[in-house]
Design goal:
about 290 residues, 9 strands, Rossmann fold, single chain
Length: about 290
Amino acid sequence: MSAGREKVWTVIGVLCSATEYFERRGVENPRGNAELLLAHVLECKRIDLYLEHDRPLAPEERGPFKALIKRRTGGEPLQYIVGHTEFLGIEIRVGPGVLIPRPETETLASEIVQVVEERPRQRIVDAGCGSGALAIFFGKRWPRAEVLATDRSPRALDCTAENARRQSLERVRCLAADLGGLPVPDRSVDLVVSNPPYVASAEIATLPRDIRGFEPREALDGGDDGLDLIRALIPEAARALKPGGWLGIEVGAGQARSTAGLCEAAFDGPRVHRDLAGIERVILARRKGI
């Protein structure tokens, strides 16, 4: 080999190098981050990286990959960099200004389908829709349902509308609204579902850098005790729901019992469910008056 010959960077070599770099910089799940970023640059699936592990990378591929590594080590969320995430097997587009869907919200959706049955002309409201992950999930799960996704953020509504278009869900509509002002008539809805802002204001500064520095504060901040928006939503959901309709809310650690208490006046026997980490995360409550 001549002394001036440039090193050949293969797929596996670049993956290993990026993984080690992420480890040194304290990036969580370093291998997974490296795989997803490289697959994004090469426009392939993660499994293809290993099927073509010895393929050399061209300079025009290495350059963009290095740029993405820099963004990730700077704290930018992986999902914003690649432009999407997965929610219960569905690809959801996300971007700056829109809350990234998380496994805790998958728990909310999964618990709801255990108790709520599909009905003819079913009407669902995703209150504070963000990326629209819940609206899209229920729109696909129950294709005959009419789903209304509401949010006060134009970016969130645009993101939800794009995700609905990508999934060909014509029955998913988007409207601007606050959690305390759902744009539906009284007793007209079968299910209200929400992942509202529930982080206490003082705790925002303690969140991981990729959350507090990049995700929208308005989608996180729930006021002094984290319950301001939940307090606004519950009576409004009670107004909008038909007798026997369901409310499903994701809440923060330590908030489940207080939230269940807020539901007791208008709902029968609020149920508390835990997420995969064992935290009381989901409240399901059925509207009184069956």
